[in-house]
Amino acid sequence: MTSPSGGHDHDDSTRQRPSAVCARCGNRAEGPPPTWTCSVENGVRRYFCDACSRENLRAIEGRLDSAWW
Known about the structure:
Layout: E1 20-21, E2 28-29, E3 37-41, E4 44-48, H1 50-55, H2 57-62
């Protein structure tokens, strides 16, 4: 099937979603992990799993400007 833009329509369920890797412990999540923490550090996007985010919550919040809390 061809879309109006001239490309082909694809079923989203057949696309392979990239996996995210925790920058701290190396845990993997298939597809975008909705409960993980995402950080952009020096222009690089880094993901942190639930466990690592919870363990380091005070350090994460400590870096935020007071306007955020």
